[in-house]
Specification:
One of its GO terms (biological process) is lipid catabolic process. Its cofactor is Fe cation. This is Rieske-type oxygenase. Homotrimer. The two-component system 3-ketosteroid-9-alpha-monooxygenase is composed of an oxygenase component KshA and a reductase component KshB. GO terms for molecular function: 2 iron, 2 sulfur cluster binding; metal ion binding; monooxygenase activity; oxidoreductase activity, acting on paired donors, with incorporation or reduction of molecular oxygen. The protein has two domains: 106 residues, Rieske [2Fe-2S] iron-sulphur domain (Rieske Iron-sulfur Protein); 177 residues, Naphthalene 1,2-dioxygenase Alpha Subunit, Chain A, domain 1, CATH 3.90.380.10. It is 16% helix and 35% strand. A hairpin with a 4-residue loop joins β17 and β18. The two termini are 43 Å apart. By secondary structure, the chain is of the alpha+beta class. The relative contact order is 0.17. It is built from four helices and 19 strands. The strands form four sheets. The protein has an eight-stranded mixed beta sheet. The structure holds FE2/S2 (inorganic) cluster and fe (ii) ion. The site of fe (ii) ion has 5 residues, from loops.
Length: 359
């Protein structure tokens, strides 16, 4: 893995009133797998604390490469494990009394007596496509679906370049933004938009494919966009560019950090559409370098595009019920599908605000 500064996070500036000051939070934290960061930020032995659903989450990687996520407070006397907690081989040591916890969360060592019967409050975590996914359930339930189960075309996706921004908004904003068709033209400047297959939803997944063009100088470059929704984690947008022999895997990922706030991760990786079968080490090295350079160039444009959305997300209010106009995208159908991710009406979850029931 390459070295890079861990978890560089931008904070979106307030230009006008930020969305979280526009009223009480409109939506509770949804259930599902959400991005907690990117694999390359966790070298073996590394620990980072990230905000996740109103609390901190301490994520660490053991020396033998096992990634673990735990809520931050030591069950012994409450020290924050992200403040000087450390990985020792396969165990995690709390900074206050040096109790050590195994990867299943069990306390396995005390420096001054038998290990007490304590367990860290671990959360399910997995790594896919270079992304760290953490499971959230409003009552602490175990995962009911796998983030990879409904997504296709990602077999070679790995090692993305990415940009992380903290701002106001909800994963719902990011997810339904993809089916807000008119904004693709009026905010992002795409032309000749054509929905090839309308949104289809099955369980926690959704898919929609479209075709659109972009003016680059005098030329119009047409691309096909395969959009996939892994729950309310955001969107995976795969862009096929057959004239260049390239396939770009993009992620717009939104993770709630606190009421009305989210961490937005934009990530992208690039592949050859039709790689040759026999690849020697020199080819691998050259193509990796060339692809990486191209990946950064394409990501520059992706970031420019996303910046338009970020300003909108940060300052908007979540409109519910939406007052849709003729020609709008299928926001209603998308919201109907989204309801499954929110705590039910009788939930005792502390974040189960009411407003989302009008979705
Ligand atoms: S508070 Fe963590 S070891 Fe005591
Ligand atoms: Fe957008």
């Amino acid at each position: 893995m390459r070295k890079k500064p861990p978890l560089r996070v931008n904070r979106y500036p307030d230009t006008v009133l930020p969305g979280d000051k526009s009223g009480p939070p409109a939506l509770p934290y949804p259930d599902g797998w959400f991005c907690a960061g990117f694999s390359d930020a966790w070298q073996p032995g590394a620990t980072h604390t990230v905000p996740y659903m109103g609390e901190d989450l301490v994520i660490y990687r053991t020396e033998s490469d096992t990634l673990r996520a735990t809520r931050p407070y030591c069950p012994h006397l409450g020290a924050h494990l992200g403040f000087d907690g450390k990985v020792l081989g396969e165990e995690f040591q709390c900074p206050l009394h040096n109790l050590r916890y195994a990867t299943d969360g069990t306390c396995v060592h005390s420096p001054y007596g038998p290990a007490p019967k304590l367990s860290l409050p671990m959360l399910p975590v997995q790594e896919r496509w270079g992304i760290v996914w953490v499971w959230h359930h409003h009552e602490g339930g175990a995962p009911t679906w796998d983030v990879a189960a409904g997504l296709t075309g990602l077999d070679n996706a790995r090692d993305p370049v990415y940009q992380i921004t903290d701002l106001c908004g909800y994963p719902q904003d990011v997810s339904e933004n993809v089916v807000d068709y008119p904004h693709l033209t009026y905010l992002h400047g795409l032309i000749n938009l054509e929905v090839l297959t309308p949104p289809k939803y099955e369980g926690p997944f959704g898919w929609v494919t479209m075709k659109a063009g972009r003016r680059i100088g005098p030329a119009v470059v047409e691309s096909e966009f395969i959009n996939q929704f892994p729950g309310l984690a955001g969107a995976n947008i795969n862009v096929s560019m057959p004239e260049f022999g390239l396939y770009s895997v993009n992620w717009l990922l939104a993770t709630p950090t606190g009421p009305g706030r989210m961490r937005y991760s934009l990530a992208s990786s690039l592949e050859l559409l039709d790689p040759p079968h026999h690849r020697g080490p020199a080819y691998e090295w050259l193509s990796h370098k060339a692809l990486r350079a191209l990946q950064y160039a394409i990501f520059w444009q992706t970031k420019k595009d996303a910046a338009r959305d970020l300003g909108i997300f940060h300052h908007k209010r979540f409109a519910t019920p939406a007052k849709l106009a003729s020609g709008d995208g299928p926001i209603g159908a998308h919201r109907k599908w989204s309801r499954q991710f929110y705590p039910p009406a009788d939930s005792q979850a502390p974040d189960a605000y009411d407003a989302h029931r009008k979705l």
